[in-house]
Amino acid sequence: MSSYLVTGASRGLGFDFIRQLAQNPTNTVIGLVRDKAAAEKKVLEEGLSNVHIVEA
């Protein structure tokens, strides 16, 4: 089981990295964002259950 932290995860390359890393259900993916609500909405829409969003 691996854990990953992705900065700038709310859009663009950062969100694409999250999407790719989350394909493996044993991975834990943490996305660092400025707008938590918007990022969590995208994660829920994509059905990425192993992704956790942190606002910084």
From TrEMBL:
**SUPFAM superfamilies, A to Z:** NAD(P)-binding Rossmann-fold domains (SSF51735)
Q: Which InterPro entries match?
A: NAD(P)-bd_dom_sf (IPR036291), SDR_enzymes (IPR052184)
Report the GO molecular function annotations: oxidoreductase activity, acting on the CH-OH group of donors, NAD or NADP as acceptor
Name of the protein in its database record: Uncharacterized protein
Q: What is the lineage of its organism?
A: Eukaryota, Fungi, Dikarya, Ascomycota, Pezizomycotina
